[in-house]
């Protein structure tokens, strides 16, 4: 396993707090899964910007992925390959995961994008 744990930025933490209130989803990891998958759907790679790990929200990979942690890792590796990145490099995987996670959280936190859990379902079913 390459990603053992990760910490969110304060901005992502604040965005997730608002999303928790809007959706009623209580657990960080569930919202992080939605965000990660939403970012993977984007056709372009995430912008390579630095997201500080300056919040007190830290998750293990096991907590993030739950019983499907291996599936999420496989999705990340596949996306790295599609983007022309080395999917066997641990540093690349960790960086790309953080970029996708933070991009997805930002998309979900866009004003009026997610007003309730029904909006999450709509996002998931868009083609």
At a glance:
By secondary structure, the chain is mainly α. It is 59% helix and 5% strand. The chain has helices spanning 10-23, 28-41, 61-65, 69-82, 90-108, 117-125; strands at 5-7, 58-60.
Total beta strand runs: 2
Shape: globular
> What about the largest sheet?
2 strands, antiparallel
Portion of residues within helices: 55-70%
CATH fourth-tier homologous superfamily = DNA sulphur modification protein DndE
One letter per element, helices H and strands E, the order comes to EHHEHHHH
Question: Largest beta sheet: what is the strand line-up?
Answer: 1-2
Structure characterization notes:
The N and C termini lie far apart (32 Å). The chain has a two-stranded antiparallel sheet with strand order 1-2. The radius of gyration is 14 Å and the shape is globular. It has 127 residues and is mainly alpha-helical. The model has no long low-confidence stretch (mean pLDDT 94). 59% of the residues lie in helices and 5% in strands. It has a single domain, classed as Orthogonal Bundle (Arc Repressor Mutant). Helix 1 crosses helix 5 (90-108) and helix 2 packs across helix 5 (90-108).
Write the layout of secondary structure elements.
Layout: E1 5-7, H1 10-23, H2 28-41, E2 58-60, H3 61-65, H4 69-82, H5 90-108, H6 117-125
Antiparallel strand pairs: 1-2
Distinctive features:
127 residues; mainly alpha; Arc Repressor Mutant; 59% helix; globular
